[in-house]
Amino acid sequence: MPLDLVLNVVVSGVLTGLVYGLMALGLSVIFGVVRVVNFAHGEMMTIAMYAATVLFAALGLDPFVAMLPIAAAFFVFGYVLQAGLINPFITRPEHSQFMLLVAVAIVMVNAMLMIFGPDARNVQVSYQLESFEVGKLLIDKARVYAAGAAVLASASLFAFFRFTLTGKAIRACADNYLGAKVVGLDVKRLYALTFGVGAACVAVAGCAMVLLVEVTPSLGPAYTLLAFVIVIVGGLGSMGGALLGGVLIGVSEALAGLFIAPSAKSMFSFGLLILVLLLRPQGLLGKRS
Amino acid sequence: MSRRAALLSLLVVSLLALPHFAGAYAISLATLILYFAYSGQAWNVMMGFAGQLSLGHSLYVGVGAYAAGALFFHYGIGPWAGLWVAILLCVLLGVVIGFLAFRFGISGVYFALLTIAFAEFTRIGFDHFDWIGGPGGMFLRVAQRDAWDLVNFRGPPLMYYYAMLALTAGAFALCFFLLKSRPGYYWQAIRENEEAAQALGINTFRWKMLAVAVSAAMTSVSGVFFAFYYNNLFPEQIFHISRSIEIILGPVIGGVGTLFGPILGAAVLTLLSDGITEAVAALGWEIPGIKQVFYGLVLLLVIMFLPHGIWPPLARRLGLHKR
Q1: DSSP readout, B54-93?
Q2: Most buried residue, A127, A241, B236, B294, by CB count within 10 Å?
Q3: What's the half-sphere exposure (Cβ side, CA atoms, 13 Å) at B179?
Q4: What are B64-81's pLDDT values in tens digits?
Q5: Is there a domain that residue B108 lies in?
């Protein structure tokens, strides 16, 4: 196997992995703060992808432009979902939360099926067929832009949690629920904000992803599982871990597709997940609770 | 207690008599309800009794179905022998997963995700396993369907109905006795507070392992039934996470940890799904996905407004409240 082919595949795996990482970052932020596992995460991702195809078909909007209104709409959607549906469930047992979000996911995936049908949809922009030449490497332009958007969104999320007062308040809720209540934080509202922020991450990731793959309703459950794998590998609740996990899974998928069979690629992800859970259950970058 | 016994015997008698006044379609629907009641009961041992949340029970359904199915397909070995192979394999798998998880202190959400990971890992593995047909599936020979061939478990739908009824009744009795015996009390102690249970000297590791083993063994039997009832097996379908969710829905809707919950939940959900299918057909709204949207919405409402499932409030209403 020629070395530059392998290198090409690794680079494209890293770039796709960054988009995966942003998607998983949404899940990780939600779990880290609200302590609810969003089993409808991949379904939300496909909704964002469909929204991008619709805006492209109707208005000719480039997905990178459509990203902003879609992220804003997703923020509102996530806020409402948490405030209206999930907040009453935060004190209920895990299987109850799981069922709630599974029901939400069933409604979402089948609503997509009703509206868009089972056939794949995509967007076609001029730069999708172009690529950058770096030495012997040929890198798709669309993939570079998508990864760039993912990095930019992740960086702003880091900045939000690090430097803004609201971000600090959300971190306080995550660190100590009771303490946050004692100092007078409106925890329920901050939870809703967090879910909104997580949903906005997924929206940006979805708009970037739609340039790389075609979207079908059945992609939703697959992305949910993928996001779980990534956050567990990286460390549930750790933001850097989600990005690292995304890149690891992106590269391992790409290499497995090259060396073994494309259909076996997620077996490696799940194998990696099992290993990480057993050897380092808090994830690669996670802190022991 | 007598009221419960009376109600239970009424249920058993009406289920035994059902074929005399129900058509073929109702029988197939009732078989499906019993199938979900049985597998829900099996899942309930692990989650409802011992508090270990498994979201990967499709693993045991699939391995059980493929073990017995492959023995029949390749060597003509009937399900009565295949059953034990299926049980053995699934107990082994459950014990390995349980050992890894409990030894390394994995619990809660992490344990649930670990069970999903094993099920998905196996699904993709079976997709690349040519001996059992890979993604193209495995098809069991369907002989003539009027004679009851109990040796090879081939026969008319009625035979499968009674087999499933016997299994469900057996599972109910087993769970009843388990709950009233030493393991049941230990499990409930672990479910309520594992640290306290440990402090009282309960070997929580051993009893959690037993719960996984019992649950895996029971679930594998439903897999064997699945193989010989439907006669075709695809890794993509049988190991899929949606199959694990199907198993869980019954007990969660009916009432986790109760004996009647899985049965009631399976009946409610299967009839609901069937009712939606008929209503959608009658209204002429045949758009793909519309049934599941309604199904999901009803699910959502039940989970929101009946946090403990349908059975506990219903039992209170019927005056069957425990103690």
Answers
A1: -S-THHHHHHHHHHHHHHHHHH---HHHHHHHHHHHHHHH
A2: A241
A3: 15
A4: 999 999 999 999 888 888
A5: yes
Inside any domain, residue B159: yes
DSSP code of residue B8: H
Considering just the CA atoms, what is the radius of gyration of chain A in Å?
Answer: 19
What are the C-alpha distances in Å from B24 to residues B21, B30, B36, B154? 10, 10, 19, 17
Measured between CA atoms, the residue of chain B closest to residue A269 is: B121
Instruction: Report yes or no on B323 lying in a domain.
Output: no
Contact A95 B128 (CB under 8 A): no
CB–CB of A281 and B104 under 8 A? Answer: yes
CB contact under 8 A, B290 and A104: no
Q: Provide the residue ranges of all domains of chain A, joining segments of one domain with +.
A: 3-218
Q: Is there a contact between A270 and B299 if contact means CB atoms under 8 Å apart?
A: no
Do the Cβ atoms of A106 and B252 come within 8 Å? no
> How far is B36 from B68, CA to CA, in rounded Å?
20
Within a domain: residue B179?
A: yes
- Find all residues with CB under 8 Å of B158, minimum gap 6, and list them: B19, B27
| Count of domains observed in chain B | 1
Q: How far is CA A193 from CA A170, A176, A188, B125, B198, in A?
A: 8, 17, 9, 40, 39
Domain containing residue B22: 2-317
Dist CA B147 CA B158 (whole Å)? 11
Nearest chain B CA: its distance from A114 CA (Å) = 5
Please report residues of A whose CB lies closer than 8 A to that of B117: 229, 270, 273-274, 277
pLDDT at A289 over 60: no
**pTM (2 d.p.):** 0.88
Identify the band that residue B321 occupies on the pLDDT scale cut at 50, 70 and 90. low
* Chain B environment of A228 (Cβ under 8 Å): 113, 116
Chain A residue closest in CA terms to B129 = A264
Residue A88: closest C-alpha in chain B: B304
Q: For residue B291, what is the nearest residue in chain A, using CA coordinates?
A: A110
Name the minimum distance, in Å, from the CA of A212 to any CA of chain B: 23
Tell me what pLDDT residue A248 has.
92
Read off the CATH number of the domain in which B176 is found: 1.10.3470
